[in-house]
Amino acid sequence: MRHFTCLADLGPDGVHAVLDQAIAWKRCPPEAHLAGKILGMVFFNPSLRTRASFEAVMARGGGHAIVLEVGGGVWKLEDRIGAVMDQDRAEHVREAVPVLGRYVDLLAVRTFASCTNDDDDERDPVMRAFADYSTVPVISMESAREHPCQGLADVLTIAETFGETRGLPVTLTWAPHVKPLPKAVPHSFLLTAGAAGCRVRVAHPPGFELHPAVVSEAREFARASGGEVTFTSDQDEALEGSRVVYAKAWGPAAPGPLGPEAVRAFPSWRIEARQLARAASDAIFLHCLPVRRNVEVGDAVLDSPASRVIDEAENRFHVQRMLLDWLAR
Amino acid sequence: MRHFTCLADLGPDGVHAVLDQAIAWKRCPPEAHLAGKILGMVFFNPSLRTRASFEAVMARGGGHAIVLEVGGGVWKLEDRIGAVMDQDRAEHVREAVPVLGRYVDLLAVRTFASCTNDDDDERDPVMRAFADYSTVPVISMESAREHPCQGLADVLTIAETFGETRGLPVTLTWAPHVKPLPKAVPHSFLLTAGAAGCRVRVAHPPGFELHPAVVSEAREFARASGGEVTFTSDQDEALEGSRVVYAKAWGPAAPGPLGPEAVRAFPSWRIEARQLARAASDAIFLHCLPVRRNVEVGDAVLDSPASRVIDEAENRFHVQRMLLDWLAR
Amino acid sequence: MRHFTCLADLGPDGVHAVLDQAIAWKRCPPEAHLAGKILGMVFFNPSLRTRASFEAVMARGGGHAIVLEVGGGVWKLEDRIGAVMDQDRAEHVREAVPVLGRYVDLLAVRTFASCTNDDDDERDPVMRAFADYSTVPVISMESAREHPCQGLADVLTIAETFGETRGLPVTLTWAPHVKPLPKAVPHSFLLTAGAAGCRVRVAHPPGFELHPAVVSEAREFARASGGEVTFTSDQDEALEGSRVVYAKAWGPAAPGPLGPEAVRAFPSWRIEARQLARAASDAIFLHCLPVRRNVEVGDAVLDSPASRVIDEAENRFHVQRMLLDWLAR
Fold first, then answer.
1. B86-107 pLDDT tens trace
2. pLDDT at C59 (0 to 100)
3. B102–A contact, CB cutoff 8 A
């Protein structure tokens, strides 16, 4: 059973293949390549881009998407083996997942990190349960550990702008927020940009470390592709001469020395024209969206010609089209 | 970029053209006229008729609708320029709208009036933001100022019944309710019946004035089409000999002399057989629905042969089919 | 107007016809048999299997489903005749139902029992209102009285396993839960297994009686098909040598001697390996799902080779495909 629940399901060679095919299909779209296929989309958490882009892929490909909102139109799901189900979770994934597999051809799942224990989130229990119990291919729409379609859309945007990703200096910088956000998006940028051979520089204040298992994996991918992954707590240093400025808020390492309110404690990390000016003169600005304007990033940056955030969001469609086609074969 | 966010986007000539085409297509429906088209439907407020009728238009036309519920499955959207987004609105329309435009071919938006400041509602900030930032055509599913598809469905029902709308005496009467409702529907009836050349009589208790900018615009449309728009606080006078009795509850002018509880203060305005008897013997009864039976309108009126409320609701489908076809070209 | 809102709409002969056709179509699926058809799905209560299986039937048949969540994306509906609608129900079914019939070709409705008055639930007011006011065929996705598609899926699973249902000893056993659940599923199993000629044994603790009107009806169906329906409060006796063990939790008879907490008072009724061992050596285990593991049924039973719960859920698709095809003709 093929799944795409994490970047390791593709590996560095797979990343290059997906990017090449996505670019080719942007020029010459496939016709009715998903005819007769049904995608079941299971949302444990809300969504705008993900919902619309996946559903659009299915509709444009001649297929159909069924949207199920767990805890909204659908009850809550239990994922712990052996649980005595006497609380508020009315159905176990051991039933829900194989049942859905009888109705649909592909399953897409969105489930956010707890943000309270990074090790638990790294183990990715809900996404693992779907992959384990599903009889049809599963694709991640973001899970506790990774948001792999986002990472691919990010790197596709970079590849389209600069042609070659190998050796390209790119910067992922932490940004302030009003609440602690999951680390899935920064994890996926690390893994994907590493696998694409970029020289990835990550900047964050002390106490906001990403998960060491993901960092190790990203370094392995980078090594295999001629890239590297380095860390600093000096934002200026990380931006110096970089070709890509990727801003993203995430919560402190958990458990760790900082409390959740630390996300508001470094307002000078907000990306403004000053920071963008440190990067290369042809640098582009990326953000996965949604972005809190004037909290994470200033209006001047988002509205500047350097910003590619709308193209980056459009690329979600293109990488997902390619991945759903691959999984549906 | 063509939009349909208010009646002025059509004007009196456009109104006649839409009605003629809608009638023609009721007899001879178009086939697969929306094949390959995706409509993104963004709901800031709930819906039954609107949701079902728009989605049915897309499905019957061979297209597809993606339904996004803001604040439900989707987070809340910010529309204020320059906002520091540190509250509960997680995404700005400056990102959300152009991103959706990359996935869909048409955008439909529903957003209710605040009912606390008629001037703010008249400026229609959310609908304006969608029209300003969208790269694809936008259609209103009701906004703070107008509900233009409803107005067209209302007047289509009148045109089908009486053939000619020019010079026809029609009455819009205020009705009691349990809470203050938006003025978008009465605004659109005024504008559309005016543009169709009706002699529109509006009756409401003092303190429930509609917005003066909308009233002026309706009078201009009426003048261009040989109609007129007049106001009275005498319900009986407004009904006398009228061919159409349109009942609708709305809230007091805001800010104004009356509090929100005033919607309960005029129970004798409820439309009963007594009121219907004042109208012409062949008069029809209209209401946009949902209607609170025995609060706004008595059972005897809704269940009488004069009632056309179900046909009127069906006509939402027919005008929307025509408008989506026009916008999708 | 044809509807399928209760098993009596089919009767014993209809049950056999549906099962035969469903089995035939599992081998050789129909193509585009629902092309151009729209199903409106109205949910007063949440759903996973029902939502996904009905929508999948429409999509695979070339049709389309519109999903409306009452009280979620849609306001609450009033069903009482003559009501003064001054509370929280914003629209009456007398408008909502015929309006939807103008947009769609078929209506599906889900509405749960109150569980506070079994006589009221037996009268099935919401489903009756839909059947009475609809101008298009209505299909039940579970109502206060019955869940007829579930009953058919249950008996289809039995028929596929054992070939012949006439005279087959099958057991429906009450199971513990954390809250009182509706009786629609046990009612439908009684009615459908009876109509299929099974020897239906029902076991429950005293005070958990099913509705007498449903029991009478099931006995009539059974008589017509050569089956029978018997009751006991001795779970062991009911299981002895049975070929089917169907576990289901439901609430106490209401009003009745037991309070809602009684659903937790009989933990020994939970289905474990011990109970399964009393049944025939080739007995299968059924449950309509969702199931609370280790509350209603132990892991060992659900994960045993005797369990057919996933096949049973798949059969929802097959019976519904046949029924929608029949209603759409």
1. 998 889 999 999 999 999 999 9
2. 98
3. yes
B32 C-beta neighbours (distance < 10 Å), count: 10
Contact partners, residue B14, CB within 8 Å, separation at least 6: none
Which residues of chain C does A96 touch, with a Cβ-Cβ cutoff of 8 Å?
A: 48, 290
Domain edges within chain C: 7-146+315-328, 150-312
Q: What is the pLDDT of residues B132-152, one digit of tens each?
A: 999 999 999 999 999 999 999
Hey, how many other C-beta atoms are within 10 angstroms of the C-beta on A234?
9
Say yes or no: C38 contacts chain B, CB-CB below 8 A: yes
Euclidean distance between CA atoms B237 and B204, whole angstroms? 11
pLDDT in tens, B20-45: 999 999 999 999 999 999 999 999 88
CATH pick for A7-146+316-328 out of 3.20.20.370, 3.40.50.1370, 1.10.1040.50, 2.40.160.20: 3.40.50.1370
Question: For C54, which residue in chain A has the nearest alpha carbon?
Answer: A103
What is the sign, positive or negative, of the torsion defined by CA atoms of B30, B36, B41, B47?
A: positive
Residues 52-71 of B with CB under 8 A from A: 64, 66, 68
- Give me the residue from C36, C75, C84 closest to B294, CB to CB: C84
Q: Which residues of B touch A309 (CB under 8 A)?
A: 95
End-to-end, the C-alpha distance of chain A in Å comes to: 11
Two structure tokens written together for B253: 């002018």
CATH number of A149-312: 3.40.50.1370
Q: Which token pair is B277?
A: 């008897």
Q: How far apart are CA A242 and CA C175, in angstroms?
A: 64
- Asked which of A151-155, B87-91, B273-277, C150-154 is least confident by mean pLDDT, the reply is B87-91
Query: Which pLDDT score, from 0 to 100, does residue C304 have?
Result: 98
Counted across chains B and C, CB pairs separated by less than 8 A come out at 88
* Pair of tokens at residue B238: 């407004």
CA distance B244 to B282: 9
Instruction: Give ∠ CA A33-A35-A41 in degrees, rounded to 5.
Output: 95
User: Whole-angstrom Cα distance, residue C256 to residue C206?
Assistant: 10
Residue C108 CA, chain-centre distance (Å), reads 14
Share the mean pLDDT of chain B: 96
Mark the ranges of chain A whose per-residue pLDDT is less than 70: 71-75
pLDDT attached to residue B44: 86
Give DSSP secondary structure letters for C188-240. HHHHHHHHTT-EEEEE--TT-PPPHHHHHHHHHHHHHHT-EEEEES-HHHHHT
Among chain C residues, the shortest Cα distance to A64 is held by: C59
- For residue C72, name the pLDDT band (cuts at 50, 70, 90): low
- A215, A186 contact by CB (below 8 A): no
- Does B135 contact A at CB distance below 8 Å? no
CATH 1.10.3660.10: does it fit domain B7-146+315-328? Answer: no
Distance CA B6, CA C146 (A): 47
Q: How many CA atoms lie within 13 A of C45 on its CB side?
A: 16
B74 contact residues in A (CB cutoff 8 A): 46-48, 51
Mind telling me how many Å the CA of B230 is from chain C's nearest CA? Answer: 30
Residue A26 near chain B (CB below 8 Å): no
Given this structure, which CATH class describes domain C150-312?
Answer: alpha beta
Residues of chain B in contact with residue A303, where contact means CB-CB under 8 angstroms, are 94
Question: Best mutation site among B33, B39, B54, B55 for testing chain C: the one with the most C CBs within 10 Å?
Answer: B55
pLDDT tens per residue, range B182-237:
999 999 999 999 999 999 999 999 999 999 999 999 999 999 999 999 999 999 99
